[in-house]
Amino acid sequence: MDNKDRRLLESFNRLTEEELEQTFTEAEAIFAGSRREYEKTKAPEELGQVVRQAVAEGGGTMYNGDRNNSKKAAPNNRRNRKRRKGRSFGKLIAGAAAAVVVCFTLALNTSEVFAKAAGELALIGPIAQVLTFRSYEEEKEDYTLKAEIPQIEADEEQISEEAAGAVLDANEEIQKKIEEYSAQAEQHIQDYKDAFLATGGTEEEFAQKDIRVDVSYDVKSQTDAYVSFVITANENWSNAYGVQYFYNISLEDGRTLTLADVLGEDYIAKADAAIKEQMQEQMASDENTYYFTEEEGGFTTIGEFPNFYINENGNPVIVFAKYEVAPGSMGTPEFEISK
Amino acid sequence: MGRDSRQVITDYIINHQEKFYRLALSYVRNPQDALDVVQNAVVRALEAAASLRNPDAVKTWFYRIIVNESISYIRRSQREYAKDPSLFPEEGYEEPGYEGESDIMEHIRRLPAEIQTVVLLRYYEDLTLKEISEVTQSKLSTVKYRLYTGIRKLEQSLRRGKEDHDG
Predict the structure, then answer these.
(1) Tally of structural domains, chain B
(2) Which residue of B has its CA nearest to A67?
Protein backbone atom coordinates (compact mmCIF):
# COMPACT_ATOMS: atom_id res chain seq x y z
CA MET A 1 0.00 0.00 0.00
CA ASP A 2 1.56 3.30 -1.00
CA ASN A 3 1.22 6.55 0.91
CA LYS A 4 -1.75 7.76 -1.05
CA ASP A 5 -3.65 4.57 -0.37
CA ARG A 6 -2.72 4.74 3.28
CA ARG A 7 -4.10 8.26 3.53
CA LEU A 8 -7.28 7.14 1.81
CA LEU A 9 -7.72 4.29 4.25
CA GLU A 10 -7.16 6.60 7.20
CA SER A 11 -9.70 9.12 6.00
CA PHE A 12 -12.13 6.29 5.29
CA ASN A 13 -11.74 4.98 8.83
CA ARG A 14 -12.41 8.41 10.32
CA LEU A 15 -15.80 8.71 8.62
CA THR A 16 -19.02 7.75 10.39
CA GLU A 17 -21.56 5.60 8.55
CA GLU A 18 -23.71 8.67 7.95
CA GLU A 19 -20.85 10.69 6.53
CA LEU A 20 -19.93 7.82 4.28
CA GLU A 21 -23.51 7.51 3.03
CA GLN A 22 -23.51 11.21 2.36
CA THR A 23 -20.26 11.00 0.41
CA PHE A 24 -21.76 8.25 -1.74
CA THR A 25 -24.92 10.21 -2.37
CA GLU A 26 -23.11 13.44 -3.20
CA ALA A 27 -20.89 11.60 -5.62
CA GLU A 28 -23.94 10.87 -7.76
CA ALA A 29 -23.48 14.37 -9.14
CA ILE A 30 -20.13 13.37 -10.65
CA PHE A 31 -21.74 10.61 -12.66
CA ALA A 32 -25.06 12.19 -13.55
CA GLY A 33 -24.12 13.39 -17.03
CA SER A 34 -22.24 10.30 -18.01
CA ARG A 35 -25.00 8.13 -16.59
CA ARG A 36 -27.55 9.75 -18.92
CA GLU A 37 -25.34 8.99 -21.90
CA TYR A 38 -24.83 5.48 -20.64
CA GLU A 39 -28.56 4.91 -20.59
CA LYS A 40 -28.89 6.20 -24.12
CA THR A 41 -26.32 3.74 -25.43
CA LYS A 42 -28.04 1.70 -28.07
CA ALA A 43 -27.18 -1.94 -28.36
CA PRO A 44 -26.44 -3.18 -31.88
CA GLU A 45 -29.31 -4.94 -33.58
CA GLU A 46 -27.41 -8.20 -33.40
CA LEU A 47 -27.75 -8.30 -29.63
CA GLY A 48 -31.11 -10.09 -29.66
CA GLN A 49 -29.78 -12.69 -32.07
CA VAL A 50 -26.59 -13.18 -30.08
CA VAL A 51 -28.49 -13.68 -26.84
CA ARG A 52 -30.97 -16.03 -28.47
CA GLN A 53 -28.22 -18.17 -29.92
CA ALA A 54 -26.37 -18.26 -26.63
CA VAL A 55 -29.54 -19.30 -24.83
CA ALA A 56 -30.09 -22.10 -27.31
CA GLU A 57 -26.48 -23.17 -27.05
CA GLY A 58 -26.48 -23.09 -23.27
CA GLY A 59 -29.46 -25.43 -23.30
CA GLY A 60 -31.90 -22.81 -22.06
CA THR A 61 -35.59 -22.83 -22.79
CA MET A 62 -36.92 -19.90 -24.60
CA TYR A 63 -39.45 -20.55 -27.26
CA ASN A 64 -41.99 -22.18 -25.17
CA GLY A 65 -42.19 -22.98 -21.52
CA ASP A 66 -43.24 -26.58 -21.85
CA ARG A 67 -40.63 -27.66 -24.33
CA ASN A 68 -38.20 -29.74 -22.38
CA ASN A 69 -34.51 -30.02 -22.91
CA SER A 70 -34.19 -33.75 -23.04
CA LYS A 71 -32.73 -33.51 -26.53
CA LYS A 72 -29.76 -31.56 -25.43
CA ALA A 73 -27.76 -32.10 -22.33
CA ALA A 74 -25.61 -29.19 -21.26
CA PRO A 75 -22.20 -29.60 -22.86
CA ASN A 76 -19.53 -30.75 -20.49
CA ASN A 77 -16.62 -28.99 -22.01
CA ARG A 78 -15.73 -25.59 -20.67
CA ARG A 79 -15.58 -22.93 -23.25
CA ASN A 80 -13.43 -19.97 -22.77
CA ARG A 81 -13.86 -17.99 -25.82
CA LYS A 82 -16.70 -18.62 -28.10
CA ARG A 83 -16.86 -16.84 -31.36
CA ARG A 84 -20.13 -15.69 -32.68
CA LYS A 85 -21.15 -17.27 -35.90
CA GLY A 86 -21.17 -13.97 -37.74
CA ARG A 87 -17.53 -13.36 -37.09
CA SER A 88 -15.68 -16.49 -37.93
CA PHE A 89 -17.80 -19.58 -37.98
CA GLY A 90 -20.20 -18.22 -40.56
CA LYS A 91 -17.55 -16.65 -42.67
CA LEU A 92 -15.71 -19.90 -43.04
CA ILE A 93 -18.80 -21.68 -44.12
CA ALA A 94 -19.83 -19.02 -46.56
CA GLY A 95 -16.49 -19.25 -48.29
CA ALA A 96 -16.52 -22.99 -48.34
CA ALA A 97 -18.88 -23.85 -51.09
CA ALA A 98 -16.61 -24.09 -54.08
CA ALA A 99 -14.23 -26.35 -55.71
CA VAL A 100 -12.03 -29.36 -55.34
CA VAL A 101 -9.41 -31.60 -55.67
CA VAL A 102 -6.24 -32.88 -56.20
CA CYS A 103 -3.19 -34.03 -57.01
CA PHE A 104 -1.46 -35.55 -59.81
CA THR A 105 1.67 -35.59 -57.77
CA LEU A 106 1.09 -32.76 -55.36
CA ALA A 107 1.94 -33.70 -51.81
CA LEU A 108 -0.92 -32.64 -49.66
CA ASN A 109 0.80 -32.15 -46.44
CA THR A 110 4.21 -30.65 -46.23
CA SER A 111 4.64 -30.65 -42.48
CA GLU A 112 5.89 -33.57 -40.51
CA VAL A 113 3.77 -36.58 -41.03
CA PHE A 114 3.63 -39.13 -38.30
CA ALA A 115 1.32 -41.56 -39.88
CA LYS A 116 0.15 -41.70 -43.42
CA ALA A 117 -2.16 -44.10 -45.05
CA ALA A 118 -3.94 -44.12 -48.33
CA GLY A 119 -7.06 -45.93 -49.29
CA GLU A 120 -8.70 -46.20 -52.65
CA LEU A 121 -12.23 -46.06 -53.83
CA ALA A 122 -12.85 -47.01 -57.38
CA LEU A 123 -14.23 -44.29 -59.60
CA ILE A 124 -14.73 -44.56 -63.31
CA GLY A 125 -15.36 -41.11 -64.73
CA PRO A 126 -13.06 -39.81 -67.44
CA ILE A 127 -11.35 -37.45 -65.03
CA ALA A 128 -11.05 -39.27 -61.88
CA GLN A 129 -10.11 -42.78 -62.05
CA VAL A 130 -9.55 -43.11 -58.40
CA LEU A 131 -10.67 -41.24 -55.35
CA THR A 132 -8.05 -41.68 -52.73
CA PHE A 133 -7.74 -40.25 -49.31
CA ARG A 134 -4.73 -39.28 -47.31
CA SER A 135 -4.71 -39.53 -43.63
CA TYR A 136 -2.11 -37.98 -41.40
CA GLU A 137 -1.53 -37.02 -37.85
CA GLU A 138 0.58 -34.17 -36.55
CA GLU A 139 1.61 -33.69 -32.93
CA LYS A 140 1.64 -30.01 -32.09
CA GLU A 141 2.69 -28.51 -28.80
CA ASP A 142 -0.80 -28.31 -27.34
CA TYR A 143 -2.89 -30.52 -29.56
CA THR A 144 -2.96 -33.24 -32.15
CA LEU A 145 -4.12 -32.60 -35.69
CA LYS A 146 -5.66 -35.61 -37.38
CA ALA A 147 -6.77 -35.25 -40.96
CA GLU A 148 -8.35 -37.44 -43.59
CA ILE A 149 -8.64 -35.65 -46.86
CA PRO A 150 -9.97 -37.04 -50.12
CA GLN A 151 -8.36 -36.37 -53.44
CA ILE A 152 -9.09 -37.28 -56.96
CA GLU A 153 -6.32 -38.67 -59.02
CA ALA A 154 -6.64 -38.41 -62.72
CA ASP A 155 -4.75 -39.80 -65.64
CA GLU A 156 -3.18 -36.72 -67.18
CA GLU A 157 -3.04 -38.23 -70.63
CA GLN A 158 -6.74 -38.81 -70.78
CA ILE A 159 -8.03 -35.37 -69.90
CA SER A 160 -7.81 -31.88 -71.35
CA GLU A 161 -5.40 -29.35 -69.98
CA GLU A 162 -8.32 -27.26 -68.84
CA ALA A 163 -9.80 -30.07 -66.83
CA ALA A 164 -6.42 -30.86 -65.34
CA GLY A 165 -6.09 -27.21 -64.32
CA ALA A 166 -9.53 -27.22 -62.71
CA VAL A 167 -8.62 -30.26 -60.71
CA LEU A 168 -5.34 -28.75 -59.59
CA ASP A 169 -6.91 -25.43 -58.56
CA ALA A 170 -9.52 -27.20 -56.58
CA ASN A 171 -6.94 -29.31 -54.91
CA GLU A 172 -4.99 -26.32 -53.79
CA GLU A 173 -8.09 -24.69 -52.44
CA ILE A 174 -8.94 -27.66 -50.30
CA GLN A 175 -5.45 -27.67 -48.91
CA LYS A 176 -5.66 -23.96 -48.17
CA LYS A 177 -8.93 -24.44 -46.28
CA ILE A 178 -7.45 -27.12 -44.08
CA GLU A 179 -4.49 -24.88 -43.33
CA GLU A 180 -6.73 -21.93 -42.50
CA TYR A 181 -8.85 -24.04 -40.26
CA SER A 182 -5.83 -25.43 -38.52
CA ALA A 183 -4.37 -21.95 -37.93
CA GLN A 184 -7.64 -20.73 -36.41
CA ALA A 185 -7.88 -23.82 -34.26
CA GLU A 186 -4.40 -23.18 -33.00
CA GLN A 187 -5.43 -19.66 -31.94
CA HIS A 188 -8.60 -20.91 -30.18
CA ILE A 189 -6.59 -23.51 -28.34
CA GLN A 190 -4.00 -20.95 -27.31
CA ASP A 191 -6.75 -18.68 -25.93
CA TYR A 192 -8.26 -21.61 -24.11
CA LYS A 193 -4.91 -22.57 -22.64
CA ASP A 194 -4.14 -19.00 -21.55
CA ALA A 195 -7.45 -18.77 -19.74
CA PHE A 196 -7.02 -22.23 -18.27
CA LEU A 197 -3.59 -21.41 -16.87
CA ALA A 198 -4.72 -17.96 -15.71
CA THR A 199 -7.50 -19.53 -13.66
CA GLY A 200 -5.18 -21.86 -11.77
CA GLY A 201 -4.84 -24.81 -14.15
CA THR A 202 -1.43 -26.36 -14.76
CA GLU A 203 0.38 -27.35 -17.96
CA GLU A 204 0.04 -31.00 -17.01
CA GLU A 205 -3.69 -30.73 -16.50
CA PHE A 206 -4.01 -29.00 -19.83
CA ALA A 207 -2.02 -31.72 -21.57
CA GLN A 208 -4.37 -34.31 -20.08
CA LYS A 209 -7.26 -32.76 -21.91
CA ASP A 210 -5.91 -34.40 -25.05
CA ILE A 211 -7.07 -31.65 -27.37
CA ARG A 212 -7.51 -32.75 -30.94
CA VAL A 213 -8.37 -31.11 -34.21
CA ASP A 214 -10.07 -33.56 -36.54
CA VAL A 215 -10.60 -33.24 -40.24
CA SER A 216 -12.56 -36.03 -41.88
CA TYR A 217 -14.74 -36.56 -44.91
CA ASP A 218 -17.82 -38.38 -45.98
CA VAL A 219 -18.52 -39.40 -49.57
CA LYS A 220 -22.23 -38.80 -50.07
CA SER A 221 -22.57 -40.21 -53.55
CA GLN A 222 -20.63 -41.04 -56.67
CA THR A 223 -21.58 -41.85 -60.23
CA ASP A 224 -19.84 -41.80 -63.58
CA ALA A 225 -20.73 -38.13 -63.81
CA TYR A 226 -19.88 -36.68 -60.43
CA VAL A 227 -18.70 -37.22 -56.91
CA SER A 228 -20.16 -35.45 -53.90
CA PHE A 229 -18.50 -35.31 -50.54
CA VAL A 230 -18.40 -33.29 -47.35
CA ILE A 231 -15.32 -32.44 -45.32
CA THR A 232 -15.93 -31.89 -41.64
CA ALA A 233 -13.48 -30.14 -39.34
CA ASN A 234 -13.83 -29.67 -35.62
CA GLU A 235 -12.02 -29.19 -32.33
CA ASN A 236 -12.86 -31.81 -29.75
CA TRP A 237 -12.91 -29.46 -26.75
CA SER A 238 -15.64 -27.18 -28.04
CA ASN A 239 -18.57 -27.67 -30.34
CA ALA A 240 -18.50 -24.01 -31.32
CA TYR A 241 -15.96 -24.38 -34.09
CA GLY A 242 -17.33 -27.17 -36.24
CA VAL A 243 -17.22 -26.45 -39.95
CA GLN A 244 -18.36 -28.34 -43.02
CA TYR A 245 -17.10 -27.88 -46.56
CA PHE A 246 -19.17 -29.18 -49.45
CA TYR A 247 -17.78 -30.48 -52.72
CA ASN A 248 -19.73 -31.58 -55.77
CA ILE A 249 -17.36 -32.25 -58.62
CA SER A 250 -18.15 -33.12 -62.18
CA LEU A 251 -16.04 -36.06 -63.27
CA GLU A 252 -16.46 -35.04 -66.88
CA ASP A 253 -14.64 -31.74 -66.77
CA GLY A 254 -13.47 -31.15 -63.20
CA ARG A 255 -15.97 -28.37 -62.73
CA THR A 256 -17.82 -27.71 -59.47
CA LEU A 257 -21.49 -28.49 -59.88
CA THR A 258 -23.88 -25.74 -58.86
CA LEU A 259 -27.38 -26.21 -57.55
CA ALA A 260 -28.65 -24.88 -60.88
CA ASP A 261 -26.90 -27.79 -62.61
CA VAL A 262 -28.85 -30.19 -60.44
CA LEU A 263 -32.25 -28.50 -60.00
CA GLY A 264 -32.52 -26.25 -63.05
CA GLU A 265 -32.61 -22.48 -63.45
CA ASP A 266 -35.45 -21.90 -60.98
CA TYR A 267 -33.52 -23.72 -58.27
CA ILE A 268 -33.88 -20.95 -55.67
CA ALA A 269 -37.68 -20.76 -55.78
CA LYS A 270 -37.93 -24.53 -55.93
CA ALA A 271 -35.67 -25.12 -52.94
CA ASP A 272 -37.13 -22.26 -50.87
CA ALA A 273 -40.65 -23.61 -51.24
CA ALA A 274 -39.60 -27.18 -50.46
CA ILE A 275 -37.65 -26.15 -47.36
CA LYS A 276 -40.45 -24.02 -45.96
CA GLU A 277 -42.89 -26.83 -46.46
CA GLN A 278 -40.59 -29.38 -44.78
CA MET A 279 -39.98 -27.07 -41.82
CA GLN A 280 -43.72 -26.69 -41.25
CA GLU A 281 -44.31 -30.42 -41.55
CA GLN A 282 -41.54 -31.27 -39.11
CA MET A 283 -42.66 -28.74 -36.53
CA ALA A 284 -46.25 -29.97 -36.79
CA SER A 285 -45.29 -33.61 -36.30
CA ASP A 286 -42.50 -33.30 -33.74
CA GLU A 287 -42.77 -30.98 -30.78
CA ASN A 288 -39.01 -31.06 -30.22
CA THR A 289 -38.39 -29.56 -33.63
CA TYR A 290 -38.17 -25.82 -33.89
CA TYR A 291 -37.06 -23.49 -36.65
CA PHE A 292 -36.69 -19.77 -36.14
CA THR A 293 -39.43 -17.63 -37.60
CA GLU A 294 -38.53 -14.91 -40.08
CA GLU A 295 -38.83 -12.31 -37.31
CA GLU A 296 -36.35 -14.30 -35.26
CA GLY A 297 -33.86 -14.22 -38.13
CA GLY A 298 -34.91 -17.60 -39.44
CA PHE A 299 -35.01 -19.02 -42.96
CA THR A 300 -36.08 -16.83 -45.84
CA THR A 301 -34.15 -18.07 -48.87
CA ILE A 302 -31.25 -20.34 -49.72
CA GLY A 303 -29.64 -17.51 -51.67
CA GLU A 304 -27.54 -18.01 -54.76
CA PHE A 305 -24.89 -20.39 -53.42
CA PRO A 306 -26.21 -22.59 -50.67
CA ASN A 307 -24.22 -25.40 -49.13
CA PHE A 308 -25.40 -28.72 -50.49
CA TYR A 309 -24.37 -32.24 -51.34
CA ILE A 310 -25.94 -34.82 -53.62
CA ASN A 311 -27.35 -37.92 -51.96
CA GLU A 312 -27.69 -41.52 -53.16
CA ASN A 313 -31.02 -40.69 -54.81
CA GLY A 314 -29.29 -38.06 -56.91
CA ASN A 315 -31.20 -35.34 -55.04
CA PRO A 316 -29.48 -32.25 -53.67
CA VAL A 317 -29.55 -31.90 -49.89
CA ILE A 318 -29.31 -28.34 -48.56
CA VAL A 319 -27.41 -28.06 -45.29
CA PHE A 320 -27.62 -25.13 -42.89
CA ALA A 321 -24.98 -24.19 -40.37
CA LYS A 322 -25.73 -24.56 -36.70
CA TYR A 323 -27.87 -21.60 -35.52
CA GLU A 324 -28.49 -20.43 -39.06
CA VAL A 325 -32.16 -21.38 -39.12
CA ALA A 326 -32.74 -23.11 -35.79
CA PRO A 327 -31.50 -23.29 -32.19
CA GLY A 328 -28.18 -24.99 -31.64
CA SER A 329 -29.90 -28.09 -30.28
CA MET A 330 -31.13 -28.78 -33.83
CA GLY A 331 -27.57 -29.22 -35.07
CA THR A 332 -27.04 -28.62 -38.79
CA PRO A 333 -30.48 -29.08 -40.37
CA GLU A 334 -30.64 -30.82 -43.77
CA PHE A 335 -33.34 -30.73 -46.42
CA GLU A 336 -33.54 -33.07 -49.37
CA ILE A 337 -34.99 -31.39 -52.42
CA SER A 338 -36.62 -33.75 -54.89
CA LYS A 339 -35.72 -33.06 -58.48
CA MET B 1 -35.84 -27.20 -10.33
CA GLY B 2 -33.30 -27.55 -13.11
CA ARG B 3 -35.75 -26.51 -15.74
CA ASP B 4 -37.32 -23.81 -13.65
CA SER B 5 -34.05 -22.14 -12.85
CA ARG B 6 -33.12 -22.21 -16.53
CA GLN B 7 -36.40 -20.57 -17.37
CA VAL B 8 -35.90 -17.96 -14.67
CA ILE B 9 -32.39 -17.23 -15.93
CA THR B 10 -33.45 -17.09 -19.56
CA ASP B 11 -36.33 -14.73 -18.87
CA TYR B 12 -34.18 -12.52 -16.71
CA ILE B 13 -31.44 -12.28 -19.31
CA ILE B 14 -33.80 -11.62 -22.21
CA ASN B 15 -35.60 -8.87 -20.30
CA HIS B 16 -32.39 -7.12 -19.32
CA GLN B 17 -30.11 -7.84 -22.26
CA GLU B 18 -29.57 -4.17 -23.12
CA LYS B 19 -28.41 -3.46 -19.59
CA PHE B 20 -25.90 -6.27 -19.66
CA TYR B 21 -24.64 -5.22 -23.04
CA ARG B 22 -24.07 -1.68 -21.73
CA LEU B 23 -22.30 -2.92 -18.65
CA ALA B 24 -20.04 -5.16 -20.72
CA LEU B 25 -19.35 -2.29 -23.10
CA SER B 26 -18.25 -0.06 -20.24
CA TYR B 27 -15.52 -2.57 -19.48
CA VAL B 28 -14.40 -3.65 -22.94
CA ARG B 29 -15.21 -0.45 -24.93
CA ASN B 30 -15.74 -2.17 -28.25
CA PRO B 31 -19.29 -3.17 -29.30
CA GLN B 32 -18.12 -6.41 -30.92
CA ASP B 33 -16.22 -7.39 -27.79
CA ALA B 34 -19.21 -6.48 -25.64
CA LEU B 35 -21.36 -8.84 -27.70
CA ASP B 36 -18.77 -11.57 -27.19
CA VAL B 37 -18.85 -10.98 -23.46
CA VAL B 38 -22.64 -11.14 -23.32
CA GLN B 39 -22.66 -14.31 -25.36
CA ASN B 40 -20.06 -15.99 -23.18
CA ALA B 41 -21.86 -14.93 -20.02
CA VAL B 42 -25.21 -16.27 -21.20
CA VAL B 43 -23.81 -19.64 -22.20
CA ARG B 44 -21.89 -19.87 -18.96
CA ALA B 45 -24.93 -18.93 -16.90
CA LEU B 46 -27.10 -21.59 -18.48
CA GLU B 47 -24.43 -24.22 -18.15
CA ALA B 48 -24.11 -23.34 -14.48
CA ALA B 49 -27.87 -23.03 -13.95
CA ALA B 50 -27.76 -25.71 -11.26
CA SER B 51 -25.63 -23.46 -9.07
CA LEU B 52 -28.45 -20.94 -8.84
CA ARG B 53 -30.17 -22.49 -5.85
CA ASN B 54 -32.44 -19.60 -5.10
CA PRO B 55 -34.17 -18.19 -8.21
CA ASP B 56 -34.83 -14.93 -6.34
CA ALA B 57 -31.08 -14.34 -6.35
CA VAL B 58 -30.86 -14.43 -10.15
CA LYS B 59 -30.04 -10.72 -10.35
CA THR B 60 -26.85 -10.72 -8.29
CA TRP B 61 -26.01 -14.21 -9.57
CA PHE B 62 -26.05 -13.10 -13.20
CA TYR B 63 -24.38 -9.75 -12.53
CA ARG B 64 -21.56 -11.74 -10.99
CA ILE B 65 -21.19 -13.78 -14.16
CA ILE B 66 -21.23 -10.81 -16.53
CA VAL B 67 -18.78 -8.84 -14.38
CA ASN B 68 -16.37 -11.75 -14.16
CA GLU B 69 -16.68 -12.42 -17.87
CA SER B 70 -15.99 -8.75 -18.68
CA ILE B 71 -12.92 -8.58 -16.48
CA SER B 72 -11.46 -11.81 -17.73
CA TYR B 73 -12.14 -10.70 -21.29
CA ILE B 74 -10.11 -7.54 -20.73
CA ARG B 75 -7.30 -9.49 -19.13
CA ARG B 76 -7.20 -11.88 -22.03
CA SER B 77 -7.04 -9.10 -24.58
CA GLN B 78 -4.37 -7.32 -22.58
CA ARG B 79 -2.27 -10.45 -22.85
CA GLU B 80 -2.85 -10.46 -26.59
CA TYR B 81 -1.81 -6.82 -26.79
CA ALA B 82 1.29 -7.62 -24.81
CA LYS B 83 2.19 -10.23 -27.40
CA ASP B 84 1.37 -8.01 -30.34
CA PRO B 85 1.24 -4.29 -29.48
CA SER B 86 -0.02 -3.38 -32.94
CA LEU B 87 -3.41 -4.75 -31.93
CA PHE B 88 -3.83 -2.07 -29.32
CA PRO B 89 -6.32 0.63 -30.24
CA GLU B 90 -4.57 3.89 -31.02
CA GLU B 91 -4.52 6.77 -28.63
CA GLY B 92 -7.64 8.86 -28.96
CA TYR B 93 -9.46 6.01 -30.60
CA GLU B 94 -13.16 6.39 -29.99
CA GLU B 95 -15.67 3.63 -30.17
CA PRO B 96 -18.95 4.29 -31.92
CA GLY B 97 -20.77 2.80 -28.92
CA TYR B 98 -19.73 5.76 -26.83
CA GLU B 99 -19.69 8.59 -29.26
CA GLY B 100 -19.69 11.86 -27.43
CA GLU B 101 -19.25 10.12 -24.14
CA SER B 102 -18.06 12.42 -21.46
CA ASP B 103 -14.68 11.17 -20.48
CA ILE B 104 -15.72 10.15 -16.99
CA MET B 105 -16.23 6.63 -18.25
CA GLU B 106 -12.68 6.71 -19.56
CA HIS B 107 -11.43 7.74 -16.12
CA ILE B 108 -13.45 4.93 -14.53
CA ARG B 109 -11.82 2.42 -16.87
CA ARG B 110 -8.42 3.39 -15.54
CA LEU B 111 -9.36 2.37 -12.02
CA PRO B 112 -8.37 -1.10 -10.81
CA ALA B 113 -10.98 -3.64 -11.92
CA GLU B 114 -12.45 -4.30 -8.47
CA ILE B 115 -12.97 -0.58 -7.87
CA GLN B 116 -14.28 0.02 -11.35
CA THR B 117 -16.85 -2.71 -10.71
CA VAL B 118 -18.32 -1.19 -7.54
CA VAL B 119 -18.50 2.25 -9.17
CA LEU B 120 -20.30 0.91 -12.24
CA LEU B 121 -22.71 -1.20 -10.24
CA ARG B 122 -23.55 1.58 -7.79
CA TYR B 123 -23.77 4.61 -10.06
CA TYR B 124 -24.74 3.14 -13.40
CA GLU B 125 -26.64 0.00 -12.52
CA ASP B 126 -28.23 1.22 -9.28
CA LEU B 127 -27.34 -1.85 -7.27
CA THR B 128 -27.42 -1.48 -3.51
CA LEU B 129 -24.18 -1.89 -1.60
CA LYS B 130 -25.50 -5.16 -0.22
CA GLU B 131 -26.20 -6.43 -3.73
CA ILE B 132 -22.74 -5.36 -4.80
CA SER B 133 -21.23 -7.31 -1.94
CA GLU B 134 -23.09 -10.40 -3.21
CA VAL B 135 -22.02 -9.80 -6.79
CA THR B 136 -18.38 -9.34 -5.89
CA GLN B 137 -18.52 -11.85 -3.05
CA SER B 138 -16.79 -9.48 -0.70
CA LYS B 139 -17.70 -8.04 2.66
CA LEU B 140 -19.94 -5.01 2.85
CA SER B 141 -17.15 -3.02 4.49
CA THR B 142 -14.84 -3.91 1.60
CA VAL B 143 -17.42 -2.68 -0.90
CA LYS B 144 -17.74 0.59 0.98
CA TYR B 145 -14.00 1.09 1.11
CA ARG B 146 -13.66 0.36 -2.58
CA LEU B 147 -16.44 2.72 -3.49
CA TYR B 148 -14.95 5.44 -1.32
CA THR B 149 -11.54 4.87 -2.86
CA GLY B 150 -13.06 4.95 -6.33
CA ILE B 151 -14.77 8.27 -5.75
CA ARG B 152 -11.65 9.90 -4.31
CA LYS B 153 -9.40 8.57 -7.04
CA LEU B 154 -11.81 9.71 -9.70
CA GLU B 155 -12.01 13.19 -8.24
CA GLN B 156 -8.23 13.39 -8.32
CA SER B 157 -7.97 12.03 -11.81
CA LEU B 158 -10.69 14.37 -13.10
CA ARG B 159 -8.98 17.32 -11.46
CA ARG B 160 -5.67 16.35 -13.02
CA GLY B 161 -7.33 15.86 -16.38
CA LYS B 162 -8.84 19.31 -16.15
CA GLU B 163 -5.53 20.92 -15.16
CA ASP B 164 -3.77 19.25 -18.08
CA HIS B 165 -6.50 20.48 -20.34
CA ASP B 166 -6.43 24.05 -19.03
CA GLY B 167 -2.74 24.29 -19.47
Answers:
(1) 2
(2) B3
